[in-house]
Amino acid sequence: MRHRKFLRLSLGWRILAGLIIGILLGVVFYQNKTFIGVAQGTGTIFINMISMIVLPIVVSSLTVGIANMGDLHKLGRIGGKTLIYFEIMSTVALALGLLMANLTHVGTLVDLHSLQATDISQYVASAKEASHHGIGDILMTIVPTNIFAALSAGNMLPIIFFAVFFGLGVAAIGERGQIIIDFLQAVAETMFKVTSWVMQLAPFGVAGLIGVTVAQLGLNSLKPLGLFILVAYATMAIFIIGIMGIVAKIFGFNIFDNLLVIKDELILAFTTASSEATLPRLIEKTQKLGVSKGVVSFVIPTGYTFNLDGSAIYQALAALFLAQAYHIHLSLGQQITLLVVLMVTSKGMAGVPGASFVVLLATISTIGVPASGLALIAGIDRLVDMGRTAVNVAGNSLATMVIGKSEGEFDMAQHDAYVASFKKQK
Question: Which of the 8 DSSP states describes residue 240?
Fold first, then answer.
């Protein structure tokens, strides 16, 4: 009976329960290698199951959406709007991060000697490899030589490129392509059903992932960097409620309505620190919010790589935080240069594992902060990552609605009805 009552709770509440249980278990089994191994395995299995679903949904949904759109000029316009919007919002997020760091001066309040360094060798290797690749090299890798190799590696941009052209090809052959559209539509619907099954395991995956973090770090190790975590979350809240709220208002939306609809996805993103975990359900929900399949299936997978507002906030805050901690004064001109460098570096390293941390490693040397300084905040990266991932997901949801509205690919009546259904649940 209790098991049934638990299942009747919304997914968001069950995930929060998993988060609390994971934290308690991490405290109880602090530094227990057996628990860490089991919890890590549980969390990894859940993330792997989500990863298994993502690519079939992206390929099938994007191909069907583009095939139904069938207009290369329109697709180019949507693509241009999407990338411009992403760049503007990311730049605003970086500027907000720098502003908050200047206002709070939180780095000057931290004693570097009280911090315990964490091994960052895995990120150093990635930063050295990625730093040799400029924007031109990234653009060259968008075109896949072997789509199956791209699918195997999970490289999102080459997959999007192929799916767009495949969808246009299907549209070009007319009625003969309908069988492909029907098949891929069935694939997408099947994978959405599989997603609903996998999501029932989310509370267990979340408990494992957060349990590992707490068991490895312990709660005491968080105290010296507590102020940085607090400022980071305050900045992210300002961005969502303030900046995103203004953008939503301009396009005729209420940001709180949007957050209400995707609350389960935000909780999942926060607790797993994985945007990938929310991608299938976000595609499904934004369509129900009134955005056309063509816009949704293009904007959300692209945003998964390029629209990382939460990561931008963290990168700007962390860079200035470390500069302040090392008593390095940066003039306004130097901070503007830092903003530009972060803009370019973050785009050049899209898709690199641990991208936010790698971007910082490649950037902080330009302002005189030693790489070893980043090892001092590496321990709390996971906790900040939870917040920035939730911001990324919220940003992608709003971006989809904004692009859909600007293209006339948006049904306001359907949006209002869907939002009303969530308000009734409250």
Answer: I
In this structure, CATH architecture of domain 2-425? Orthogonal Bundle (1.10)
Domain boundaries, the chain: 2-425
Q: What is the helix (H) or strand (E) element at residue 32, kind and residue range?
A: none
At residue 7 the predicted structure's pLDDT band, cuts being 50, 70 and 90, is low
Count of CB atoms situated within 10 Å of the CB of 13? 14
Q: Is the pLDDT of residue 123 over 60?
A: no
pLDDT at 113: 59
CA 123 to each of CA 112, 118, 119, 129, 326: distance values in angstroms, whole numbers, following the listed order: 21, 11, 9, 10, 21
Q: Which residues pair with 291 in a beta bridge?
A: 410
The tokens for 99 are 């502003």
Which tens digit of pLDDT belongs to each residue from 299-346?
Answer: 988 888 778 888 889 989 988 988 888 888 888 888 888 888 888 776
What backbone torsions phi and psi does residue 226 show, to the nearest 5 degrees?
A: -60, -40
What pLDDT, on the 0 to 100 scale, is given for residue 349?
A: 52
Q: What is the CA radius of gyration of the chain?
A: 22
Task: Tell me the pLDDT tens digit for each residue of 219-234.
Answer: 766 666 788 889 999 9
227 Cβ contact list (under 8 Å, min separation 6): 106, 109, 110
CA distance linking residue 371 with residue 101, whole number of Å: 20
Q: Provide the H-helix boundaries in 274-411.
A: 279-288, 293-306, 309-325, 332-348, 355-363, 371-374, 381-406
CB-based contact 94:337 (threshold 8 Å)? no
Q: Is the dihedral of CA 397, 398, 403, 405 positive or negative?
A: positive
272 is written with which tokens?
A: 């797993």
76-110: pLDDT as tens digits: 888 889 989 998 999 999 999 999 999 988 888 77
SS3 410: strand
Q: What is the pLDDT of residue 231?
A: 92
Q: The tokens 């570097």 sit on which residue?
A: 112
Polymer length of the chain: 426
Task: Give phi and psi for 41, each to the nearest 5.
Answer: -65, -40
